[in-house]
Every structure is written in C-alpha cells, then in structure tokens.
Amino acid sequence: MKLIIAKSAGFCFGVKRAIDMALDAVKKYPKDLYTLGPLIHNPQAVEFLEELGVKARDRIEHIPGGTVIFRSHGVSLKDLRKAKEKRLRIIDATCPIVKRAQLHAKYLHQHGYALLIVGEAQHPEVEAIRSYIQEGVDVVEGVKAVQRLGPWAKLGIIAQTTQSFSLFKEVVAVCLEKAKELKVFNTICHATTIRQMEAVEIARKVDCVIVIGGYNSGNTQRLAAICRDIQPHTYHIETAEEIHPRWLAKRERIGVTAGASTPSWVIKEVERKVRRLKGLRG
Ligand code: SF4
After folding, report:
1. Could you identify the atom of ligand 1 that is nearest to the CA of residue 191?
2. pTM (predicted TM-score)
3. Which protein residues touch ligand 1 with a CB less than 6 Å away?
C-alpha cells in the first residue's frame, strides 16, 4: 500500500499572502473588519477567519464602514470606486501575479488589440480584469466557444491565472488561424502549472486520487478534472469526513492533491483518515 501526497498541495503564495494580510489586519484593525466576498474559495478557512472577526460580505453596499480586504483574485474598478467613495480603509491582497495579468490586459487594450481571456466569465478574477477594459473583451472556457468568434485584425490573448495550460495552448492554436496579428501573454501562474503537472504525474501512478478543496474553488475543480481524465477513481472532497471507506477498499496506491486555497490542516486530516482506513502508520 502506497500513499503519495503532492508536494504542491495547499496554499499558494498569493493565498498565503492574503491570509497573512488578514491575520495582520485582525491585530491592527479588529473592529469592523470585512472581506469583499470570501477571502479564499475554501469554506473551512473562511469559517476560521470569521471566528477571528473577519466578516465576509458580497457587496460593498453591505459593509457599513471600517476596513475592507480585497482578496487575491483582485477587485473590479466599480467596487474599488465604491470603497473609496465610502472612505473604507482598503487592504489590497490582490495577488501580484493576478495584478500582472491585469496589466497585460490593459496593455493589449491600449495598443488596439481585441482581448480574449481564456477563463470562466463569472470568476471574480476574470470579472475584475474585464472591468478595467470597458468593451471588446471575449471570455472563453473552451475551444468550441472560440471557434464561433473572430476573425480579428489584432487579437491579444491572456488566461485566468489558474487555467489549464493545455487548454490555453489549444485556444491559441485556433486563434492563430483567425487573427492577422496575434499577441499572447501566458498569464497562467507558475504555481498552478506545477500543481497541475504534479497532479498528472501522481494520477498516472495510482489507482485512486483524492483532490481536496472548496467545491467553489475553480482551480480545485480543474485539478479534479485533470486527474479524472487519467484516473477515473478520482474524488473531489472538501473535508476528511467525506471520504467513504468503499472508495479505498480495493486500492493499493492512493494519491492526494489539493487546490491553492486548501489549508494544510485539512490536508493533514485527510492524510490521517486515509492512513487509518488503510492501516498505515502515520
Ligand atoms: S494561484 Fe497563483 S495567481 Fe492565483 S493567488 Fe495563487 S499564486 Fe496568485
């Protein structure tokens, strides 16, 4: 029996930075401390912050005053303006890698390129990027959608930072045939690429994969999809309690990975439960 835990499982640099900034804010501004939307896409971590007094609110209008933390996904221009108008103290935890994607989008727009974002239209990171470019932005989640678009004289492409690299390449390949001039910025975060590559490696070696992370976490969902393509016995869970002994009964090699917003304590609990069920020493 073998248990392989991905080295890249758990908090990425941007999420860790956002959590550290929130913990720091708890000490400095404990009264009226809010995040615009859940700080990260993980209910367990959000609950932990809530216990410390960090309240998540979906809209600026629902924040009566005090301090607002913008999460690692970034913030839309509209919300930034509203927060300033309300004179809220702003702590901007936008991940520097997300900021870089925003800058690339602005550059392309200012230089006359139509902008194509490979990502999820409803994701807060994509919504924030779009908000800085008033018009002429298309968002695609797959190759089929891009086939319906174009042709373009000048097209610029970026990706949501947690997109799958192989999908990004496929979209770029299709666009090569549809744009006279094409400029591509690979804005996929390196940590995401490493995490996905390691997940592929692990999924090939095992007969069951457990992917841990919020059901609302796009990067965890993609990780699970990547693993499932290789190993059909792939299970996406949020907490250890969800592991069903039946899943592991006949499995001899079990792999575990986790999304960028999964706390290490949740990963540890999963590891302990798998070890217990398989009679392995911890
Ligand atoms: S996944 Fe990458 S881009 Fe997104 S928050 Fe983490 S480090 Fe930043």
Report:
1. 2
2. 0.89
3. 12-15, 72, 95, 97-98, 161-162, 189, 191-192, 260
